[in-house]
Design brief:
heterodimer; A: alpha+beta; three-stranded antiparallel beta sheet; 6 strands; B: alpha+beta; six-stranded mixed beta sheet; 19 strands; globular
Chain lengths: 169, 701
Amino acid sequence: MRPIETTEVKLVNEIRASSRMGKLLKKHGDMEKLLSSILENDEYQDIHCVGNDGDYLYSEEEMSHSYMEMLLGMEEKNLPQSMAALIRRESKIYPRPTPSDIFKGAPFGASSEDIQTALDTMKDSEEYGDIGEVKASNGALYLFSNLYMTAPHARGLAEWVEVEQFDNP
Amino acid sequence: MAVSYGWGGKIIRVNLSTGNITLEDTMKYKDFIGGMGIGYKVMFDEVPQGTKAFDEANKIVFAIGPLTGSGAPSSSRTNITSLFPTNPYNAVGDSHMGGNFAAQLKYAGYDAIIVEGKASRPVWLRIEDDSISLEDASRVWGTGIKNTIAVLNSVMGKEASVAAIGQAGENMVNISVIMNGLSHSAGGHGGVLGSKNLKAIGVRGTKAVKVAGKGHELVRLNRYMMKDIIGANNQHVVPSTPQPWAEFHHKGSRWTAREGLTWGAAEGGPVETGNCAAGDVNRVGYRTMKATFDLGPSAEKYTVRMGGCQSCPIRCMSQLKIPKLQEYGLSPYVANTCMGYFSPQRVMFKGYKDIEEPGDGKMFAAAIGASVADDYGVWCNYGLIGTDLRHGYESGIFKKVLPAEEYNSIPWHLLEEKDPAFLIDFYRRIAFKEGELSNLGLGAHWVAKRWNFGDDYWNNPKNNLWSKLGFPKHHSNETNGQVGSLISCMFNRDAQSHTLVNLVGSGLPIEIQKDIVAEIVGSPDGIDPPKNYTPMNEYKAKLTKWAIIKNCLHDSLTLCNWMWPMTTSPHKSRNYRGDLGLEAKFMTLVTGENYTEESLDLSAERIFTLHRALTVKNMNTIDMRNKHDTMVDWIFDKDPDIPVFTPGTDKMDRKDMQLALTLFYKEMGWDEKTGAPTRKTLERLGMKDVADALGGLNLLP
């Protein structure tokens, strides 16, 4: 017999489905009481409230932490901040420079103009003083944080991804 | 013969001079597993020192292993071993092909084919289970690979797999291929078959591969690998773009599936690859969209599907339908992967013009070039044919060495105009040995010698040359510095070792890679971040040994080293750890004998050391350090503004590389001065006969 789908289960399923589709679920209506119950339930340990005010819901089973952070950044509609967060993370943990065209795809969906505007903003702001630019020989633009890597290193790695790897496939 | 699990149990020996066909017991080679191991043992024992690649005394060994056709994923690899004509000493080399040939050979009950002698007229070898015969090849001699395969398949049936040479092989072009399935090619040995008047080998098997374990156990192991371990092509374990399921992404990853990307020309309408999350067993085959990775976004709408080899869930061969190709006199259908597509792009060194829409020139050059080169059976020496063409042309050397009439007959204007029609003329000249230009088919060492290519040729970083033995870099200094460099020095052709580069290119952050390497060699110092290398240390030597012997293991089992070993996993829940014991698990299950990772690695060490012994014998010197394990100057001199061992460069240091050789020789138990195998090591590995043979030639250190 099919188990009865409680309101709690319905919401958990909705959160998980949204995460699977690459979306955060924004709290809506009066769900605080229901959420408290979910968050206290051991069966739903994958469900989390995130964001400054805990306004967004996601399932860590269906969505990675890094993707959730990228989405959160976009929810705040601050592209320079979102870009800088990813650039710093990649410069730190790989280290590697970040291709500028990555921001055109999901989850950012920025246009070329949006990206250029964000880059201009970053150049003018002390907050982003660590963000630098390098180009591969095919003209592809890469961004890096000098907190974690040098410009020659970033340039060398950009050249590998854009050009050299295809000479050594 | 006793029942043999895993192995077919029999080896076919074909003497083309006498027409004799005999069977031998595979088990005498069991210490060498199969594939590459059988090949090296036969070559060491049976081919006299001083033999050249195209001599009647040379032999060529097609060999597979106990896992071939067993159901283990990515196991339909054929290893071909013979003297290698591009090598200045014609020292031994391997070429490999995927496709269906290996599995069919196993289904027929065989582990290897040893071909010796020379036929008095063109023949092909027909194998149908227990029936083996030499057949007249006059109907197909002089024709291309596509026609040959079509004709022989019409004789044997469409289930048969035919491995054939084209006109390049018949004409003993040094850089020519043996190919099965119209796109699965083994580069470098086509001319050896041509020298023996052997046009093709067709094989059709209908027998079962005997597996010792229970069927459901094999299914369970297979499913474990598919769900928990396997990634995309080259065992890349993160997607190339940010995706909800993935903690990491990497633009260089071959896990290129994403939302909105399609096989645009699929029958019945476009098929979307979608996001293929780790663990989704039924979408593993969509993960690697190699068409757009290799050829650019223009290829999407022409992609019928991604194809590949028998037993492989990773579909890395893009199969395209490009109607416009018919205007070049070619079939609209073309299939290939990797260098098969990249090499024609390099021949078009002036660039490629748009054909149907902006930006599609690269794809058209690749498709036209692959179609023509594959039919003639022309190899590229891992892309160097384009390098050599460019150097001869741009340096003005061709104007001096080619007769004026020939020079003027070459459609250079097409090259200058970036017109891919140039490729049709170019590959014909190489395959048919037309004129002086066709000496590009000799391979880099012989080309440079013939036309006096100087230091500007060898030492130009853009030329990608690695060794004056005439081969290019193939995952070398840029792949973990000294480790990739050592790997590239150890063979008699470009190293085809993917053990290390698959880890480096996995897409995982450096700390995870360091942790994995520490588990393998005992210290994270075995690996550095890309282009930020540290001086040599003992752990890098250990990692080099690990990488090479895994490669030799896979070419003997046979498993595809473009996928194996399973060093990493796409699953965060596994902390991204793969399963390096998986080969042993499959071997134990398939053969019914108890194998461990250590026992298999020991066998592989034996095989690699035998390769070294063969090289010593072929070159008639023990001075491997100075005569064999050498690198050209640009590797040390590139990036003059960036000091070695600082961020931003992958150049190496001369003194440090000598230390690297010493530490590696020590790991292998070879003589630390010369790099030759010692009697002690050969005997430790059970090869007293090899030590005695080398001793008799005064070739022991």
